[in-house]
Design a protein that fits this description.
Layout lengths: L5 H10 L9 H21 L2 H24 L9 H18 L4 H23 L5 H18 L5 H4 L5 E2 L13 H24 L2 H11 L1 H6 L4 H27 L1 E2 L6 H14 L6 H19 L4 H15 L7 H11 L4
Antiparallel strand pairs: 1-2
């Protein structure tokens, strides 16, 4: 087979794989058991502030999962997912403060709104690729906070001052306080989303997404509708990230345009790289990194926390260039290289 035919051959081999069965019941049970263990320990030992930090880390993990689907698995570079995070947060805030919608009912609405916006952005963005798409999405992250400050929508968004939300009360039958309940609530939603994403990415659709990422010309030659798959992937990614933003608004009890600056989009991208691009479990580590490492850097040096954060990030990427998710593979490779005694 010639060099020009290899991509087509690889794509054909990928498409010819038997249909995946998704996440098997045993694997799903193990994932849920791991989340149960993660949930139980903080409930017993963590303070209210520590539970708040873990809740925020879980929302970031969900947002990074959405970004990883479109970038890590479909190859579309996005530097503007903080905009969808903001739209999801404001959708929940507006529904709760102006229409008295229950907090749990705002979540699917926020996901649908962000998914629709993602579809609208993703369709024209298909004409672009690589760095041009990254700059387009980056401009979206720059524009959204300014739009939220616009006087024409200030009545709904609260303008520069933002808007306050009321933290939901824990149901009496749970025996938990509000912080513990919200932590478990976010964690359960995160577990369901990660299982859903694992099922999707192990299906034919997931293999088609990866084929388009690796060999778009070969995928098109096979008859794949690249435009439709890319647009729907972008919409799904935006919907998941918007849902994360809605959860963060409930946890923080406050939304303001300055909370969703360009830095948020950069942090989500950093979390994806640190966790592992194209990994299902990577966003979990990415969310923890985004929340806790800046705090660690500030505790080391209050005068220059950004410098400490940058050093930690560079050092980490040097040790684990494939992110946390690549750590087991790196250990296995080192063990294989050891001389046999």
């Amino acid at each position: 087979m010639s060099t020009s035919q290899q991509p087509i051959g690889n794509a054909l081999a990928t498409a010819a794989e038997p249909a995946a069965h998704g996440v098997r019941p045993l694997r799903a049970a193990l994932i849920l058991a791991a989340f149960a263990v993660v949930a139980a320990a903080p409930l017993a030992f963590a303070s209210s502030y520590q539970l708040f930090q873990l809740t925020l880390a879980a929302t970031y993990a969900i947002a990074i999962l959405g970004l990883n689907i479109v970038t890590g698995f479909n190859g579309q570079i996005s530097l503007g997912h903080g905009a969808f995070y903001a739209v999801g947060a404001y959708t929940t805030a507006i529904l709760m403060t102006h229409f008295d919608v229950p907090y749990w009912a705002t979540l699917p609405i926020a996901a649908l709104v962000c998914g629709a916006i993602g579809f609208g952005v993703g369709f024209p963005a298909l004409r672009l690729g690589g760095l041009y798409l990254a700059l387009t999405t980056f401009s979206l992250a720059v524009a959204v906070p300014q739009i939220l400050k616009y006087k024409g929508v200030e009545e709904w968004t609260g303008g520069v001052q933002g808007a306050f939300l009321v933290k939901p009360d824990a149901p009496s039958f749970t025996g938990l306080d509000n912080d513990q309940y919200l932590y478990l609530f976010v964690l359960v939603i995160a577990a369901l989303l990660f299982i859903m994403a694992a099922n999707l990415l192990h299906s034919r659709i997931g293999r088609a997404m990866r084929s388009i990422r690796d060999h778009p010309t070969a995928a098109q030659a096979m008859g794949m509708d690249i435009a439709r798959i890319k647009t729907r992937t972008f919409a799904l990614s935006a919907g998941i990230t918007g849902l994360a933003g809605a959860l963060s608004a409930i946890a923080v009890e406050f939304v303001a345009p300055d909370s969703f600056s360009v830095e948020l989009s950069i942090n989500l991208f950093v979390g994806m790289v640190v966790g592992g691009v194209g990994s299902i479990i990577g966003p979990i580590f990415g969310g923890l990194f985004v929340v806790f490492v800046p705090n660690l850097a500030e505790s080391v040096s209050r005068a220059a926390p950004g410098v400490i954060y940058g050093v930690i990030l560079i050092f980490f990427l040097y040790l684990l260039p494939q992110g946390f998710a690549g750590f087991p593979r790196r250990v296995a490779a080192l063990l294989r290289q050891r001389p046999q005694g």
